[in-house]
Write a structure and sequence with these properties.
The complex is a heterotrimer of chains A (153), B (318) and C (502). Chain B has 318 residues and is of the alpha/beta class. In chain B, 43% of the residues lie in helices and 20% in strands. Chain B folds into two domains: 155 residues, Bordetella uptake gene, domain 1 (D-Maltodextrin-Binding Protein, domain 2); 122 residues, D-Maltodextrin-Binding Protein, domain 2, CATH 3.40.190.10. Chain C has one domain. The chains are: A mainly alpha (153), B alpha/beta (318), C mainly alpha (502). At the A-C interface, helix 1, helix 2, helix 3, helix 4 and helix 5 of A face helix 3, helix 8, helix 9, helix 17 and helix 18 of C.
Chain lengths: 153, 318, 502
């Protein structure tokens, strides 16, 4: 169909979709490998997970096949900085909240989280962290009774 | 100043690690009461009602923490990992605590958890819609004999009180019933009232607070009639060997010094004797039944064996 | 006494200064926790439950009920302003509400949501008063077979939700179904898809997925554009809805109210299903379905009306049968029981002041909420003018604390971070997360009821067509399917005709 010099084929977002669907389908099949399947009228624990996984794989394959034939489309602007920093700051919060209490965890979350934004300034960040931590301690922990220690001791 | 604080903190930590804080117990720190169920559930409301009375008895603080999940396993695991200094206690529920030892690989060692005191004993019973033709367990069994599998019993899942009761009735009466699992007893009640299932299993406490014009209990599964259902014949009286009741109490790590556990048990005993607490429990239809930790623990192995044999039968039937 | 006298009795009970005060406290507190993402009304009510011990029964219950429907109002605020659905029923509100906010029409979206909710709340409250017992018998007719048909219908309706290709929407629903299966299988007790982790034993919390896929992902993609500087909301054009907005919103509100009142009575996924299906309905009947997902006012009005109507009518099974239809109602039941009151038909006859007082207070509470919320809109909208670099760390913190507070479990926070990552990948693959959430909510209900139905019928699948309600819904599903396929047929034919003419 396409003449010489025409752009490459492959709808990348759709190919990624296919990969996700097939990936989850495969994961579902693997995780339910030891479960009892049963029959339609006497369904075992593994019946529906397997059925859903298989449909997902078929669907993924169909989308993928179509995507390789459609016009090229790129995946929009990938930037790892916000993705990594936000994810890591939340993971850090989780760790600190368990071992060091709310105050330190909240401070870390705000300070680390603002690093995801290239335009952040230290002074504002520290003020913001202090303000939000105080607000959180008062409203969540004291006011609404969220069951979390404030301090590490 | 700061140095001083750090020093005293370090000292306190060493002291408690060595079990030296023993003498001060329970006044120097709050005693955490971990509840294995979400806020608002029966166990949670009961323990939150009890906490202030324990506080008064021991002159200590009892903050309630909820660690719901995995039928209590998350809480028992947390308890087994807590420092054995008497500042962490948890709720303990049977048959869940026992049945989880049968089939599951647990993340804690059940023998490390010692009951402090039983607070509630709430027998199971079977309930049918008010317009049902079953007036007793005998009626239900007779019908099931003629129509194998046609009598459906709503339960709240595999290995729960209701399911164990149903399996015992099947074994004792030699009938074939169909267990229909529901997400909770409220879903089961709705299906019962809608006439979609024949009967459901409930606890006496739940039944006491349900609307008696729309449903009727046909037999209870305790050794003796519960204080909540004095007019309802037990399964034994009707000729079936079915015994199941849900017991709720408190537990601590076995490594907690004997003396501290005894004082806790004593406080529970006194709180339960308080007429004010009794009045509140009666309003919530909680069948109080104190039993010392030692007695409760002594009764557990026989029950575990009973459940084990029921589970084995269930496996065979599959 | 006739209904009117009883209603008057209710109002005289609800209007005492003390009860009015507790209603206000409840509504305010509800709005607050509704606005804070992740902090749900269930935890707050649990904390307040022991306090109600010391209040007269009606006052305590009025306050708790106020928290519940107040949270429904507050929940839509975060959905519209920052794309954060606090609970399942607010997911749909994000689809068009957040778009409206991005276009500078946050005020209009909030006002339509508040007024639509008020209207729906009023209708549903009177529905409870006039037809409560009748409606509850309708709920009882819903057995496992009926649920299966309803869930099938709901899942099909979910594909309409997405504005992208249908195949992707179906795939996302399937992934949602898989997530819904994580945990202990109810029927067999087997652990499924848990990786052997005890933390997944009870499955995944809805809020964890919603905050991960919506909240965290939104923050990451916003920052990606070019740091916080790139996040610019269109300037506020107008605080209130236009006449055109009202004209388009009111039929949607009417339909949403109807759907919500009926589906709210059903235990479990009622409220969620109501908001999802009313959105799908609007998109189907609209002359301009392409506008949905890009700031269509009907897309805010209908689901908001539906979920508030459902919030009110979910009281019906509790008040008339004594059976709570969801966690919140179970908590309300505890509140009744603390005072030794067993809700049900006996309360209706013996203690009418409790039932009618609560019903009247619900209407008053809804009125109070509109009065509180309309002036607040100005304030909320100003929140959008706060620079994003100050706003997003706050959202991040609120989300983390909110998730933790559900089960007091750090694991949930980590899981949400994982869903944030997954949501990011979905964005890059141009997959919309809405259908996934519906699959997640409805899937377990579908599976459980399918098994129950077949257990009860002893494996006979004809139950689904033998029961009238179930059959009706299956027919509706087929009709919907036909409607979905036909337009594309017609379009293709039209295109073919045009080519021939040309």
């Amino acid at each position: 169909m396409s003449g010489p010099g025409a752009s490459k084929k492959g709808d990348l977002p759709d190919l990624l979709t296919a990969a996700i669907f097939i990936g989850f389908g495969a994961l579902g099949l693997w995780l339910s490998r030891n479960l009892d399947g049963g029959t339609l009228s006497q369904m075992g624990a593994g019946y529906l997970p397997r059925a859903v996984s298989i449909i997902l794989i078929v669907l993924g394959a169909a989308i993928g096949l179509k995507a390789t034939r459609s016009a090229s489309q790129p995946i929009e602007g990938l930037k790892l900085r916000p993705l990594l920093i936000i994810t890591l700051s939340v993971i850090g919060f989780a760790y600190l909240a368990e071992h060091a209490g709310f105050v330190l965890a909240s401070f870390w979350l705000v300070v680390a989280g603002t690093l995801a934004d290239p335009g952040s300034r230290l002074r504002t960040t520290l003020l913001l962290a202090a303000g939000l931590t105080a607000f959180g301690a008062l409203v969540f922990v004291k006011g609404l009774g969220v069951q979390i220690d404030l301090w590490p001791f | 100043m700061k140095h001083l604080k750090t020093l005293s903190l370090a000292a306190a930590l060493t002291a408690s690690a060595a079990g030296m804080a023993h003498a001060d117990w329970p006044t120097d720190r709050p005693i955490e009461l971990i509840v294995a169920f979400a806020p608002g559930g029966g166990t949670d409301v009961m323990l939150r009602t009890l906490a202030p009375y324990l506080e008064a008895e021991l002159d200590a603080q009892f903050p309630v923490l909820n660690r719901p999940g995995a039928a209590g396993e998350i809480t028992y695991t947390a308890l087994a990992q807590a420092r054995p200094d008497g500042y962490t206690v948890s709720s303990l529920n049977t048959p869940g605590f026992l049945t989880m030892q049968i089939e599951r690989k647990l993340r804690f060692e059940p023998s490390e958890i010692c009951p402090i005191a039983r607070i509630v004993e709430d027998p199971g019973l079977f309930v049918v819609p008010a317009n049902s033709e079953f007036k007793s367990l005998t009626d239900l069994v007779a019908y099931a004999k003629e129509h194998p599998g046609a009598v459906s019993i709503g339960t709240t899942g595999v290995g729960t009180d209701e399911h164990l009761a149903m399996l015992q009735l099947e074994r004792s009466a030699g009938v074939d019933l169909t267990a229909v699992p529901f997400t909770g007893s409220n879903d089961a009640k709705t299906a019962l009232l809608g006439g979609h299932i024949s009967a459901i299993g409930l606890n006496a406490g739940e039944y006491a607070t349900a609307d008696h014009n729309s449903m009727r209990a046909i037999g209870q599964f305790s050794e003796e009639r519960s204080i909540l259902a004095k007019d309802l014949p037990t399964a034994k009286e009707q000729g079936y060997d079915v015994i199941i009741s849900s017991e709720r109490g408190l537990a601590a790590r076995c490594e907690v010094p004997e003396e501290i556990r005894a004082r806790l048990a004593d406080a529970v005993d006194k709180a339960l004797a308080n007429p004010e607490f009794q009045a509140q429990a009666a309003k919530q239809s909680v069948p109080l039944s104190f039993q010392s930790g030692a007695d409760w623990q002594a009764a557990m192995p026989a029950r575990l064996e009973r459940y084990r044999s029921i589970f084995a039968l269930m496996k065979e039937g599959q | 006494m006739n209904t009117f006298d009883l209603l008057m009795l209710g109002f005289s009970e609800a209007m005492t200064p003390a009860n009015l005060g507790f209603c206000l406290i409840g509504a305010l507190l509800g709005t607050l926790i509704g606005v804070l993402p992740g902090i749900g009304p269930t935890a707050t009510i649990a904390v307040l439950l022991p306090i109600t011990f010391f209040l007269p029964p009606l006052a305590g219950i009025i306050m708790l009920a106020g928290i519940y429907y107040g949270a429904q109002y507050g929940g839509s605020t975060t959905a519209i302003l920052v794309n954060l659905p606090g609970e399942a029923s607010a997911v749909v509100t994000t689809l068009d509400g957040y778009q409206m906010a991005q276009q500078g029409r946050a005020g209009a979206a909030l006002a339509v949501a508040a007024l639509g909710s008020f209207f729906a709340g009023t209708v549903a409250t009177f529905g409870i008063a006039i037809a409560g017992p009748m409606l509850s018998s309708f709920a009882l007719d819903f057995g496992p077979a009926e649920y299966v048909s309803l869930m099938l219908f709901g899942l099909l309706a979910a594909t309409i939700l997405a504005s992208g290709p249908v195949l992707k929407a179906i795939g996302m629903i399937l992934i949602g179904l898989l997530f819904g299966m994580v945990g202990t299988d109810q029927a067999t007790g087997a652990e499924r898809l848990t990786f052997g982790s005890i933390d997944l034993f009870d499955g995944i919390e809805f809020t964890v997925i919603a905050i991960g896929l919506f909240g965290f992902t939104e923050i990451i993609t916003n920052l990606e554009r070019s740091g916080s500087e790139g996040v610019k909301v269109a300037p506020l054009t107008r605080l209130w809805p236009t006449r055109e907005d009202f004209r388009r919103a009111w039929p949607a509100v009417l339909r949403g109210t109807g759907i919500g009142t009926f589906l709210g009575i059903l235990p479990g996924g009622g409220a969620t299903l109501a908001s999802f299906s009313s959105y799908s309905l609007e998109k189907k009947v609209s002359k301009n379905p392409r506008a949905f997902g890009h700031g269509a006012v009907e897309g805010v009005a209908a689901p908001e009306a539906a979920n508030n109507a459902a919030a009110q009518s979910s009281f019906i099974p509790l008040l008339t049968l004594g059976i709570p239809s969801n966690n919140m109602m179970a908590m309300m039941l505890s509140a009744f029981m603390i005072h030794g009151i067993t809700p049900g038909p006996t309360v209706l006859t013996n203690q009418p002041e409790i039932f009618w007082g609560l019903v009247a207070s619900m209407w008053i509470g809804n009125l109070l909420l509109v009065v509180i919320n309309l002036p607040l809109i100005g304030l909320w909208v100003r929140l959008l003018t706060v620079p994003y670099r100050l706003l997003y760390p706050a959202i991040l913190l609120f989300c983390c604390v909110g998730i933790y507070s559900i089960n007091n479990r750090i694991f949930d926070v980590l899981l949400a971070a994982g869903f944030g990552l997954l949501g990011y990948i979905f964005r890059k693959a141009k997959c919309e997360p809405g259908p996934l959430l519906l699959g997640f909510v409805l899937g377990p209900l579908l599976e459980a009821n399918l098994r129950r139905a077949l257990l009860i019928s002893q494996g006979d699948a004809s139950v689904f067509i033998e029961r009238p309600i179930s059959l009706t819904m299956l027919i509706a599903t087929v009709v919907l399917l036909a409607l979905m396929i036909l337009p594309s047929f017609r379009k293709k034919r039209e295109e073919a005709f045009q080519e021939e003419e040309a």
